[in-house]
Amino acid sequence: TEKYWVNLFQINNDKFPLAINSKHKNILETQPILEFISNVIKEISFTNSAYLNTTVPIDIKNRFRISIHSPVTLDAYDVDGNHTGKICPPTSDFCYVEENIANSSYMEFGEGKYINLPEDQMSKIKLQGIDIGTFTYESEKVLPDGSSTISSFVDIPVTTQTQAEVTLNSNTRVPQLALDVTGDGVTDFMLAPSVTFDPITYLQIMKATINSLDLPQAKIKAFNKRIDNIIKSIQKGKIDKAKLKADRFKSVLEKKLSKPDSKHPKLKKLSKTDAQLLLDMLNKLLDNLN
N or C: at which end does the chain have fewer Cβ atoms within 10 angstroms? Predict the structure, then answer.
C-alpha cells in the first residue's frame, strides 16, 4: 500500500475552480485529486507533483493567528477583496462563515473570534464595534520553523460606532491599527502595538468619544477638561491624584444615573445611556491604572 500526501496549501494558492479554499472535508473535490483518481482507474503510472506527493508537504509561508475577545466583529480581506469572516445578513435570523481567502479559516468560541491566514494573503483586518466595552487584538506571526512573535493592541475603548482597520506597515511588516472612534470614515488615531495598557491613549480616545456625543459645547468642554486634568496627573506620575480625579468624574455621572427619567427630556442633554458609557470607560481606566 502506498501513501500519498495532498498539498492543500498549494492547491488553494493556485485557485483551482470549484474548490475555493479547500479543506480536508472536501479534499476529494479538488481537481488534482480527481485527476489522480482518474489516472488510477486508467492504470496510468503516478508521478510526484506540486499537489500530490509521496513525501509530506511543508508549508514554507509565514502565517498569522489573529484573535479577539470583545464586542467587535472580525473580518479579513486579501488584495483582491476576498473575505474571511462571519456574515449576518440583515434580512435573515441566521449567520454563516465565509472563508474565501486562500488557506484561511474563521472560528468562534464563546466571545472569542479567531482568524488564521498566510501573511502574504493579508491585506487588511476590519473591526466593527457591536457593543460598549474594550477590545484587545492579538496577532501571532508564526514562521515555518514554528517560532512566533506576538503583536497586541490592549484594552482599546469600543462603542457601536467604533471602526478599526489593521494593516501591515510596508517597511517593518508590523501590524498597525487605524481607529475611527465615531464611524465617520476618518481615522482619529493610528496606534502601534503595545503589550501594556496605555492610559494616555485610552483617555484621548475617551475625549474623542465625548466629542461625538450630542451635547452642548459647554458640557463637552467641561468633560474634556476633566479628562485633560487626569492626563496631566498621570504624566506627572501622580497616579493617586489621577484616580481621585477619575472618581470625582464618576460621581458626576453616577448622580446623573440616579435621577429619575424626565417625562419631557431636553435635547442635547446627557442621556443615561451616554452617562453609563462614560462611567464604564472610567471604571476600565481605574481597573488598569497603577
Answer: N
